[in-house]
């Protein structure tokens, strides 16, 4: 029998998820594998299992979950009823898996950990997106992700109807308050950035006050930035900020974003609302595997 983590004919589209799933399986298998399942279940036994939702939610992480089964049983087959990005009702079947019984039982927790986590993020994002319908605001995530899971968590946000902020430190410039403190202010920080980066890189600056915003807007054209992050401003202040910007920059609101506050923030007229808790504190969606 091949090693549990040996390569196999995986479903397509797993290039970035595969190392994450392999790491999660290896963490669970440890030094001796699944000693419970291997003691009880004959090696040639097969079984069918259904991935079922216990609560209403938006499905995410299904492809990664199915990869966990396929990594342990390259011949495993699937029937998908609710693919990633679709909604499922309590008791609804998301997918059915058929394969070696040992593989299904051993991969169960890894698959459900990934699906519960990612579907929870997608469901929370869906809730915020619905709350701001009718406004111009987009819900976006941040870099406050679980180490090692960023690619999957940011995908889950998109599956929930949200959008991604920068993926990492290397794909956009975000000059925050601590950068300004060390650099000595907005202008010297922006000057150094503009001298260092290429013309294709977007630049965003965080401001805490309307005075800082006015300073940013007064920069000469050669130093003009693309986005302003309006940090921890109440809706009334956000409205004044949006009026000052007057369409010259994209506006992003951040801080104190909850289900109770997001509508008022959106109605202030900002283009984006960034929310860190979508990826660091969204509750898991309850999903089970029923043999």
TrEMBL record:
Catalytic reaction annotation: nicotinate beta-D-ribonucleotide + CO2 + diphosphate = quinolinate + 5-phospho-alpha-D-ribose 1-diphosphate + 2 H(+)
Coiled-coil intervals, chain numbering: none
EC number: 2.4.2.19
Annotated Quinolinate phosphoribosyl transferase C-terminal domain residues: 121-290
Cellular component aspect of the GO annotation: cytoplasm
Short name of any one Pfam family annotated for the protein: QRPTase_N
Domain of life: Bacteria
Gene3D superfamilies (UniProt xref): Aldolase class I (3.20.20.70), Quinolinate phosphoribosyl transferase, N-terminal domain (3.90.1170.20)
Pathway linked to the protein: Cofactor biosynthesis; NAD(+) biosynthesis; nicotinate D-ribonucleotide from quinolinate: step 1/1
Quaternary organization: Hexamer formed by 3 homodimers.
Family: Belongs to the NadC/ModD family.
Protein name, UniProt field: Probable nicotinate-nucleotide pyrophosphorylase [carboxylating]
Species assigned in the record: Azospirillum thermophilum
Lineage start: Bacteria, Pseudomonadati, Pseudomonadota, Alphaproteobacteria, Rhodospirillales
